[in-house]
Design a protein that fits this description.
DNA_clamp_sf (chains A, B, C), Proliferating Cell Nuclear Antigen, DNA Polymerase III, Chain A, domain 2, DNA replication (chains A, B, C), homotrimer, elongated, 223 residues, DNA binding (chains A, B, C), nucleus (chains A, B, C), seven-stranded antiparallel beta sheet, DNA-binding (chains A, B, C)
Chain lengths: 223, 223, 223
């Protein structure tokens, strides 16, 4: 099961993949694309208790998604019908991309860097060579950078792997990266992939599947 | 000692009763009704420390309520005069009402249902029969309901008792119920009483007394 | 190293003194006054991790302050250039003042009194004699006061010392005192010094130095 969402300005894309074998029960007779308001889905899912089992159901040609929540002792059950949206575009096929730089680092560390640098300005320059990744900003109040070196620690909150086949330096909007960074609660590690002129990819693996964000680089005119 | 307050639109009433024997000292020479701004009283009471003893005092024909806070070791004492309000109406005699449905359930559970359903729309339909209580909403984004069955667990955060002599189904404004639900920190249990066309009553018992809320049902034109 | 800042309306002054021997390394070839935006400095300092070592550097005739943060294991280093401000006035020589009343009390207690009394009105009257310190307010909703007596407890969160050579009673704006009270996280104790017609001084001692606030009294026309 894959969930895709794109922001209104079409610069950011998120893809959540949940492995079917991780569901207690999973049946899908034929591939189907449902248009769901993420905001409304999240309102309904909050009604479920932490220990509730959740079932999602949609018929062929479905106009509603049926959610059922059942408490452990079944003394409480909830059922909701969520109206589906008409999709303007079909499911996007994301092209598998080769990247010239791949950095795996602690997700909290990456989150902290993006959050704090956003205080200075919105555009971050991420530059990577074999030895170092550099996160730099320059704004009215001054300028500066954070440099990260590889660390082969076993601890996921210290480990940092840098694989670079070609120097790369690109600009991104921190306000998007900071939205993506909420995913750091799902995984200790984030894998950052970069190649000139293609969107950056941030990938978070977790038990049930993976969450992947794409963000188009800022080009000079945007800066 | 009984404290009553009604909201400006006169659809909600709260009655707090504190048992006189639970006070360290209690003297009331004759019944007296004082008009107090709850907001201002709460500002003053916050000045007291958690372990302070609080004394409240009002003379006959009082124009101020005198609050005294005294620290455990008496190295700190505070005294405040709170200006009283002129009351438009006298103390309301709340009529003892027979109800066709009485539900006792965990107060946190009731609070969570009201809070989450309020995300969908403001009008909740509470329907009860002998076997089940149903909390339902229907809004732009979809519709749904939470069903609660009786549970004779000994744990107050699971126990649920449903006594229904007649089917009942009524509509209420969730924004009020969610204000009332703050009282769930006073008691593990809430007793919900319903009868057609009379206000719902929510009752929270705690060591010092009881807190009771009344809310008029929504009629069709309000919905 | 001393940091001074004054509020825009020139009624409050803060002086932070850090003892040079408490730095790992400290070099200052000649006295120098740098104009720094506290807000911008604080944005940059937040980029540092809790365990990072921080170095501050400025050349003669400096136009930027250079901040370097280094992680424990040096796998992360950050360097920032903070643009300096042109100062309108030079370093202020704060005159050593004799005070007629000096009160040392728990900083959390003083903070709580100021915070809660601010709910009633903005002007606080602090009055001290040999036996008692009185914090009083009077507003639309009523009036009241908190009285503190000396307490020779050994516990810093109870101890209260009152040294008064002359009765004193002065008015201050609580909104400033409440800003100052954020310093209560630095020290368990606050020393309050009062003399008629001169600014109140609040002094917080901590391991690395001391933080001192001055606030001009409110005179009748302000009240």
């Amino acid at each position: 099961m894959t969930i895709q969402a794109m922001d209104a300005s079409h610069v950011a894309l998120v893809v959540l993949s949940l492995r079917s074998e991780k569901f207690e029960e999973y049946r899908c007779d034929r591939p189907q694309t449902l248009g769901i308001s993420i905001g409304n889905l999240s309102k309904l899912v909050k009604v479920a208790g932490n220990d509730d089992s959740i079932s999602l159901r949609a018929d062929d040609e479905a106009r509603v998604l049926i959610l059922t929540f059942r408490g452990k002792n079944s003394e409480r059950t909830s059922e909701f019908q969520l109206n589906l949206l008409t999709l303007e575009s079909e499911h996007l096929g994301v092209i598998d991309q080769e990247y010239v730089a791949e950095i795996t680092m602690p997700s909290l560390e990456f989150g902290r860097i993006c959050r704090e640098l956003a205080q200075i300005t919105d555009t971050i320059t991420i530059a990577a060579d074999k030895e170092i990744v550099n996160f730099a900003v320059s704004g009215d109040i001054g300028s500066g950078s954070v440099a990260i070196k590889p660390n082969d620690s076993d601890k996921p909150d210290e480990k940092c792997i840098i694989k670079v086949s070609e120097l790369v330096s690109m600009n991104f909007a921190l306000r998007y990266l900071n939205l993506f960074n909420k995913a750091s609660m799902l995984s200790n590690e984030v894998s950052i992939s970069l190649s000139p002129e293609v969107p950056i990819s941030l990938q978070y693996e977790f038990e049930l599947g993976e969450l992947r964000y794409y963000l188009a680089p800022k080009i000079a005119e945007d800066a």
